[in-house]
Amino acid sequence: MYHPNSTSDEKNLLKKIGVSSFEDLLPRLPKNHLNPGLGLRKNLSEMDLSREMEGLAGKNGSPLSFVGAGAYDHFIPAAVPAIQSRGEFLTAYTPYQAEASQGTLQSIFEFQSIVAEIYGMDMANASMYDGATSLAEAVLVAVRQTGKPVVILPDALHPHYRRTLETYFGSNPGIQLATVPCPHGVIDSKELDMKLSANKDKVAAVVIQSPNFFGCIEDGAEWTQKAHAAGALSIVSANPLAMGLLTPPGEYGADIAVGDGQPLGIPLSFGGPYVGLFACKQELMRKIPGRLCGKTVDTNGQVGYVLTLQAREQHIRREKAISNICSNQNLMALAVTLQSSLLGPEGLRDLAELNLQQAHYAASQISNIPGFKLHFSAPFFNEFVLELSGDAELFQQKALAMNVLPGLILKPYFPSLDRHILVNVTEKRSKEDIDRLVSVLRSVK
Amino acid sequence: MSRLEPLLIDQSVKGRRGVGIPKSPVSQPLGHLIPEKFLRKKKPHLPEVTEFQVVRHFTRLSQLNFSIDTHFYPLGSCTMKYNPKLNEAMAGLPGLKNIHPLAPDVVSQGMLEILYNLEQWLIRVTGFDAFTLQPAAGAHGELTGIFLAQAYHRARGNKKSVVLIPDSAHGTNPASAALAGFKVVQVKSQSDGHIDLSDYRQKLTDEVALIMITLPNTLGIFEGQIETITREAHAKGALVYLDGANFNALAGLVRPGDLGFDICHINLHKTFSTPHGGGGPGAGPVGVKKELEPFLPVPRVLKEKEKFVMRDSKHQFPQSIGQMRSFFGSTGVLLRAYTYMVTLGEDGVKEMSRRAIINANFIRVRLSKIFKVAANEPCMHEAVFSGVPALKNGTKTLDIAKRLLDYGYYAPTVYFPLIVPECLMIEPTETETPETLEAFCTTIEKIAREIETDPEMVKHAPHTTPVQRLDEVQAAREPVLKWPSWNSAFNTFYEEKTQKSQGPQK
Q1: Considering the domain boundaries, does residue A421 fall inside one?
Q2: What DSSP element (H or E) covers A228?
Q3: Over the stretch B70-126, which tens digit does the pLDDT of each residue have?
Q4: Which among B114, B121, B175 has the least Cβ separation from residue A318?
Q5: What is the value of pTM for the model shown?
Q6: Which of A36, A161, A325 sits opposite B326 (nearest CB)?
Q7: Are B152 and B239 in contact, with CB atoms under 8 Å apart?
Q8: Are residues A168 and A276 located together in one domain of the fold?
Q9: For B289, which of B37, B142, B353, B456 is 20 to 30 Å away at the CA?
Q10: Is the ipTM of this complex over 0.95?
């Protein structure tokens, strides 16, 4: 029980209110529906509940896992949860009263700075829900900005991101989603040209994901150039950790960069909460969704931070707002800020390279096993598509029996990749872990 | 000494690091792995600091905040109740925190069981038939609900393009409806916050797909005509949506499913006490009646022969609206809400709303001598006032809000809903003690006296916070939204580093 529960408290309060019973406070509630039996369990003590939850947690397995696909198992330094769980951050509200929220506001300002720097963009917002919804919001911005309806998606876009876009825009007559094939794991240049010319003057944006769902690195610079030549915006969805090593979208002129901040300090947590990153060129500043924190001064000329440009938002514009979003994933944004601050520019680069090296070691060891081969030859970051010699489902079962989860089965997403898995290797998978994966693969092939 | 903290980037010294990254024991030359043209050339301008600098910086920043753990938050419509520490501990159990969202069902049985159970708890508390846990926030839940209504009508061949929304509703309602492509038509509220029934009937045409209702309404009053409203909507073939933002008033007392609602979202970060985190994450699960269940988003958690499974196939859910986000849901938030509900149990859930209503009515009666109550009748979970009677000598409600900060109280919600002049909306929640409520009301009385004796001081409040009133006009005129980038267009750091790492290693 978390409320003061002595009956004398209640009696006193009711007396001060001037009623004789609680029911007197409910004159308008329909009597026939009042106080239903809910059929819930009785309350549990903290001790009993802990025991029960620990039991449930114990029913989950903990195989040596090489599943990534948009949610990655990275090392999180102890300082990140230690700061993030401070009550002053954890239990604060949205910083509408700026004078009482400078800690949250300044940390948002630092987050915006870090995200913009990581993507090499002019600016970033205070965050969105996750990678998929950030991309959906970016698509909306592009359609509104260009006044054109067609958005070109690569076939190698994360299938969940694609599904989210289809849900958001499937019944919107003003937005048409088109797909460019990626037969070699990355966007096919000729196919992109064809899509652009087939939809001449109608393309709002080309979406690029790099590294893409297959882990392959796209030639973002070239696709951006093609998008711009066709009068479309370039939207890049990118893993922020990979930006420690790879050319960031801002360096090749992308208009909007989005991504999921999960790889930078956020646990897997069965899919959420994560944090959507959203960065853009300066000229889109007043067109983008989400909270923005800006620097200003107080009446004494002292530097302070406030939420700003709120005229874009739903609480002022209602149905004319740029987006319906009313929050940011602030606590998760804080994790990204903490993790990035601990890493610094060199740490970000070294961590990215460690991922790259471990993944390439795994790929080279596995492709030495007869019957296994890398499906694509495009350069990759920390994830790759592996072709097996037989059925992926059966293969997974056998590996799981040895407590190893070798990767994500791709058939449900790409029916033609019916003997394929997506293997992710982060810095948390040691050489010994990788060698164990290799020996399991040898034994179950 | 200034209580403010410099930006972390301004404490940066080249070469410092907060965390060491080991070298890969199996390194190859970088140039063998990635073509040169894909490598980053320009270094991001991130802080170069020690771990201790990071810890001290953010600890100091945290101390510039008000929070539930440190201050009373009488923030109307936000339900800022205590966030139990147990919930944090449970969500942080390694066996829950480290589960991959795409792990095979056999690996995530415990997690799926909890999520399945949470859906069952929500079904029982609300009286709906099925739930999706997927939406990331209240506004995301609204969007999900609107897509559900759209899919429902489309499946029936209904051509309905209008969503009715009371003018007192939260701004996310019209914004969500517009995002889904609906035309928004406003329904008038009366001065007591109730829906103007004659205006409603006039606007309830065959074009209406959905009516979105906040219950209790934004004046904290239960809509006594709710069953009439839902019945008449159904007679026109429209669905009725409950914005569950104020569900803390209803939990255990009445079930929205019994009142004729078809769809509703519940803000778990309000009613079921998951921490707000300075603005998120939240979670906005959506409940529906049977007829709408086929349209729920995927993936869904099901129980099949004593096993729990997660399913998302088009064949199994051909009518589903699809997926609303990257993965299953804000599971970390869901776990906290689940822990909270199970801790309370049936009696505790009922006691929760009961105590919330009693506390709010105490505030209503106690402050009615200072302010004008917006509706002259018992309120539900929050008390809404017009500040006008207390506002003398050119003061505004905003000044009272700011002055409260000096006394260590967060400000109430002010200027919402717009139908009440100089509005203050106070939601004490059930977790505050009578002593805190009493002290808060005494402080309001004190501020009312200050308005008479020293109005200039009140107008310039707050005086004791780390900063005073901030220049929002300047912030918006020439926005500064980030710290500066490097001055030089290129920093050779990466090129050097790249060349170095191409030498033989190991």
Answers
A1: yes
A2: helix A220-229
A3: 999 999 999 999 999 999 999 999 999 999 999 999 999 999 999 999 999 999 999
A4: B175
A5: 0.96
A6: A161
A7: yes
A8: yes
A9: B353
A10: yes
